[in-house]
Amino acid sequence: MKKRLTKNGGLKLLSLAVAFIVWLLVINISNPKVRRTKTVEIEVLNEDAVTKKSRVYEIRGGNKVNVSYDVRILDENKIKSSDFRAYVDCNKLYEDTNSLYVVVEVVDNKELIIGSPSASPGVINLDIETIQQKKFDLISHAEGTPGEGYSVGEIKLDPSSITLTGPENVFGSISNVGIEVNVDGAVSDLSGEAVPVLYDANGNRLETDTSKLKFSMEGIHYNVTILGGKTLPLNFNVGGNVASGYKFIGVESATKSVQVTGPPAELEKLSSIEIPQNVLNIEGATEDKSVVLDVNEYLPAGVSASGSKDVMITLKVAAINRKTFELKLSDIRLNGKNSAYTYATSPEIITLVVSGLETELAKLKASDLNAVMNISGLTEGTHTGSLAFKPSGSLAVSLAVESYTPFNVIVTARDETQPAQTSSESSGSDSQGGSSSQNPSESAYQGETSQPATSATRESTTHRSEPSSKTETPAPSQTVPPRETSSKPETQTRRESGSKTEP
Questions:
Q1: Digit-coded pLDDT (tens) for 335-357
Q2: What b/e readout covers 12-44, taking b as 16+ CB neighbours within 10 angstroms?
Q3: What strands, in cross-sheet order, belong to the sheet with 408-413?
Q4: Exposed, middle or buried, 272 (CB in 10 Å: 0-12/13-18/19+)?
């Protein structure tokens, strides 16, 4: 079979060539007529006949038709779509059906067209809708993330509103009109112009064909304020006094600082957020007081909290309790001791009343009060004693020695036959940190005293009375006993104090 198909190949090619030549002769001699088609866009005439009635139209099925025509076969390649014109006239609109006849004209190569061309479809229909006009307040959407430490502030638009004109059915899905501004990486204010964008009720961008809509402004100008960020500590200023018998012990708040945003120039002026005393007032309080405030109220204009604006503050108040302690001379640090004398107190036990919080009093020891007595310059005789207290650490704030029993300091000349220092004296001086009056550590406590039990004040202060010619036990009205040395001879002093005079 294959042999038969390939046999006499030259003869077969010759036959094809002869047939083609014969076809060309026939075509050139007869040049037959053929039917051809071109696609042509429809031109709309007198469209104001529709639009002047506040209406808008759209050609149903598209705005193109197929134009069919006859042409000689040898001329068909000479014909183009632009050789034809297809149009409709709105003045001839059939109102009942909104239909128009399509008219086709030959505008070029008329001599090549045989007969009159025709359009398919020959009749078109218009979808006519009422035109609506609606005004929208413009909104803005920031796209992207500003530079680290910065945030988007106010976005101003010019104009602030826009008017849309278009088919009534288009407005059904439009809820907002606005612009989108790219703020990605921004560290300074931005400005520019953007085209309007349509949004639905959920804030999603609409891909509506805006060719049917007319905007009163094609471009919207914008100015974007880029805000800096800063963390500011909260400074709580507490005002007023708690009720008698109570103590203010501090401020508690889970929020210690707040992240704020604002113009960089304004942020540079801020180092903290001050909460004033009139807001944190504890006047007459007998229990904890809680305050919830809006931190934005205490920030300057243009600066605001970037996170939660509400801050809860608790002003802690606790009842004051009292506890009694006993001191011996060995528990007291002596400042200004003279090795030529021995020292004793009368009575030997001094009772203290200390006020403070129950939790602090429970763990307090007498030694924690660091009792100090300044005996610098005292000579032989009996003198009114006074004490000062230097509680260590936090105790200095939370505790106070309200009173102590009045006492005398008895100074006796040391017997030259006795050792320079007895064991009891050593306990009352060296063990408590006492030394000579030249010791710098002693001078730090000089003049610091507290009031005896009969005093009405609560603070430890130093007072001196006028010098007296004889030594007396302080009267109940004395606030602080004097520390002056008696001016009388030793024998007279001992007689007046009830001591037996040595022969």
A1: 999 999 999 999 999 999 998 88
A2: eeeeeeeeeeeeeeeeeeeeeeeebebebebeb
A3: 341-346, 408-413, 381-384
A4: exposed
Q: What does the alpha-carbon distance between residue 156 and residue 255 come to, in Å, rounded to a whole number?
A: 33
Interval 37-50: pLDDT, tens: 999 999 999 988 88
At 12 the pLDDT is 67
Contact 227, 263 (CB under 8 A): yes
Nearest residue to 451 via CA among 366, 361, 364, 353: 353
Peptide bond between residue 121 and the one before it cis (omega within 30 degrees of 0): yes
> Which pTM value belongs to this model?
0.44
Q: What's the pLDDT tens digit per position in 122-142?
A: 999 998 888 888 999 999 999
Output 424 or 40, whichever has higher pLDDT. Answer: 40
Preceding peptide of 159 cis, ω within 30°: yes
What single-letter DSSP state applies at residue 393?
A: T
CA distance 179 to 195: 6
d(Cα 186, Cα 143) in Å, to the nearest integer?
Answer: 11
Decide: 288 and 262 in contact? Cβ < 8 Å.
Answer: no
- Residue 356's identity, in one-letter code, is G
For residue 367, give Cα distances in angstroms to 26, 134, 329, 432.
138, 86, 12, 9
Question: Using alpha carbons only, what angle is made at residue 380 by residues 379 and 384, rounded to the nearest 5 degrees?
Answer: 75
Distance between start and end Cα atoms, the chain = 170
What tens digit of pLDDT does each residue of 206-226 get?
Answer: 887 777 788 998 899 999 988
